Every structure is written in structure tokens, then in C-alpha cells.
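Milestone M4 deliverable, item 7.
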Amino acid sequence: MTGRRAVVASLLGFGLVGTARAQSAAWVALRTPGHFAMIRHALAPGTFDPPGFKVEDCSTQRNLSAEGRAQAVRIGEMFRANGIVAAKLYSSQWCRCLETARLMALGDVTPDARLNSFAQNRERAERQTAALRPWLAAFDLGQPTVLVTHQVVISAIAGTSTSSGEIVVLRRERDERPTVQGRIETS
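Output delivered:
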């Protein structure tokens, strides 16, 4: 291997090791009281829901693909492999979020409208986020707590965008503004 290739290989290897360390630290944080996870639902191809969709009717929504369902199962397996065999699970009422949470198989899933998407109704964003913050502040975070939701909700709370199935681990702060402690890719 030439000197240049060795340097590139070393840098790539360092990046992978750095990512593995960061993800390991995120799992440790999630097992620590005062932390919780927000997960963007697993892969549901497309963007937005069709016009006239109904939250209570899955046939009118964008839903998980076969790949998304497999990803949701893998997410649950990742939790168990990292010492979390059960969690308090809350989900958006959207079918793709509920299905993701159920396929993770970490416990009963509680649907909650505060986790619903506002991507197609931005007027709700400020009001919904304002309702979500004190709800998060009141959680008993003595055991792992997982919220399965949408990109826009995670962005509003964590200030970061996410890919399908990505886990963002947050620490609850006193000012009701959680801080990101780590991210875990699941694809």
C-alpha cells in the first residue's frame, strides 16, 4: 500500500471507529436516567401524505415499505443488543410511526398527538412544539423512554434533521430544551 493510500485508509478507519465510539456513547446515555430517544419512523418511501389523508385510516397515508418494516425490527434488535430490552414507547398517531414502534417490540406503544407531523400544516408547528416541551419535561426518565415521530418534530425539539429510522438521544435540561447527546444510524 502506498503512503497516500495508507493515510486515506487510516483516516477512513478512524472515522468508522469514531462513529462506533459516538454511537456507543449514545447507547450509554440512553441507559442513563434523564435521557430519552426520538426516532424518525422507519423507511416509508415518498414525501408527505396524499391530499385528503386521514390519520385514522392507514390506507390513505404513506406507510412503511417492506424495507422499512425490516428496519424497524432491526432497530428493536439494536436496543436489545445494547442492554435495553424494554422501554416506555410513545408514538405519533401516523400509521408509519405506530408500526415502527410496534415492530421494535420493546413494550406497549402509547399514541400521542403531540408527536404527530405538522409538515403539511406548518401553522401548527409553534403551538404543537410549545405543548410538547412541558410534556417532555414531566416525563419520569428513570427507565428508557422512546418517542417515534417525524422529521419535523425531531427538528423542532432537537434542532437537527434525521434520516429514516435514525435515533437521536437527548438529555432533558431544566429549561425544557433537550440537548443532543448522540445519534445512532440504523439503515
